[in-house]
Write a structure and sequence with these properties.
Elements (H helix, E strand, L loop, with lengths): L3 H16 L4 E4 L4 H14 L4 E7 L6 H13 L3 E6 L1 H7 L6 H17 L3 E3 L7 H5 L3 E2 L2 E2 L7 H10 L28 H21 L6 E7 L6 E7 L4 H11 L7 E4 L4 E7 L1 H4 L2 H12 L7 E7 L8 E8 L2
Parallel strand pairs: 1-2, 1-4, 2-3, 4-6, 8-9, 10-11
Antiparallel strand pairs: 5-6, 7-8, 10-12
Helix pairs in contact: 1-2, 1-7, 2-7, 4-5, 8-9
């Protein structure tokens, strides 16, 4: 078994060999993976050779996440540049949820453009799609942690005494608010606003109440003309806190209905033909994309869409089955 210090030394040697003293850029989200990559890059190349670039998505980014980015970059004495990616994100998600494409285009795509020929280091590892299927060095991107799992990455963070502040959305895989919009971002000031405002508000309430959640989000589902908020909090709060959450979310003008989930649920999902005909894709969507972000067990009823503009999927309705 290779010890953490030996793993670190191997990664440092690889980074040095790969860059040979040239400047690099880190695609920096402020999370565990990109922070560890930043610390390793600084160790390998020196601070003057490393720049972190963060893509901000305006109201679609968690306010606490942006504060974390500023705090961590200051702690690491890391050069930080923040660029805007809201317009690109809205364009990608206009025809349906597409997290992988959003990462490629609106996140990594923006960072690569700003990098101006410099190699871009990412935090991709065995816990994500790129880590499982991608290459360590490809098309201007380099993933030093590609062969590691989350536990190994956390041990490296502990070795460097790196402290990552949780946003509160998910103790295991935090992201952006729009991953909770389970339908097309057809009208940003309606669909996008619902996901942005409801999820920011939920985390704010839980923080005020000092409630230690493992999972906290509001999924936005329903037809295009109706936003339904499915509230996921785990562990399940007591009735008084649930009532407060429901009362506050009831003030979000872009939400027509709110359901606090405490029983198993069936999601009615329409998918385009490519996804509908691909059993592997449907299985990954249900078990890998949806279930981990729900606080209750889910089932999925698949329907083939007649909407030719839907490029992925849309959760059009739900049923409580418990």
């Amino acid at each position: 078994m290779i010890h953490t210090k030996d793993k670190i030394n191997n990664i440092l040697k690889e980074i040095k060999k790969t860059r040979q003293g040239e400047e690099i850029v880190v695609a920096f989200s402020g999370g565990l993976d990109s922070t560890v990559v930043s610390a390793l890059a600084i160790q390998a190349l020196g601070r003057e050779k490393v720049e972190a670039i963060t893509v901000s998505f305006g109201e679609y980014s968690y306010s606490k996440g942006l504060k974390n980015i500023q705090s961590i970059s200051k702690t690491l004495d890391l050069k930080l540049k923040i660029v805007q990616g809201k317009a690109e994100q809205e364009q990608v998600l206009k025809k349906g949820p597409a997290c992988n494409k959003c990462t490629r285009v609106a996140k990594l795509g923006k960072v690569k453009k700003e990098a101006s020929e410099r190699l871009v280091l990412t935090g991709s590892n065995q816990s994500d799609t790129w880590g499982k299927r991608g290459l360590k060095l490809c098309n201007g991107f380099y993933a030093p942690l590609l062969e590691l799992n989350k536990e190994e990455i956390r041990k490296i963070a502990d070795y460097f005494d790196i402290k990552i502040l949780q946003i509160g959305e998910n103790k295991f895989r935090e992201g952006c608010k729009l991953k909770h919009l389970l339908k097309p971002l057809a009208i940003p000031h309606y669909h996008g606003q619902a996901a942005a405002e409801a999820n920011e508000l939920l985390l704010s309430i839980l923080e005020q109440e000092e409630y230690d959640s493992v999972l906290a989000n509001v999924k936005i589902v329903g037809p295009l003309n109706k936003n339904i908020g499915l509230v996921n909090v785990s562990p399940l709060p007591e009735e008084k806190l649930k009532e407060k959450i429901m009362e506050e979310l009831g003030k979000v003008k872009t939400l027509e209905k709110i359901e606090f989930l405490d029983k198993p649920i069936k999601l009615i999902v329409k998918a385009n033909k490519g996804q509908f005909d691909n059993r592997h894709s449907r299985y990954w969507l249900e078990k890998g994309r949806l279930q981990p972000d729900f606080s209750v067990p889910i089932e999925v009823e698949w329907l083939l869409t007649t909407n030719k503009s839907l490029s992925t999927f849309q959760v059009i309705d739900y049923e409580i089955i418990g």
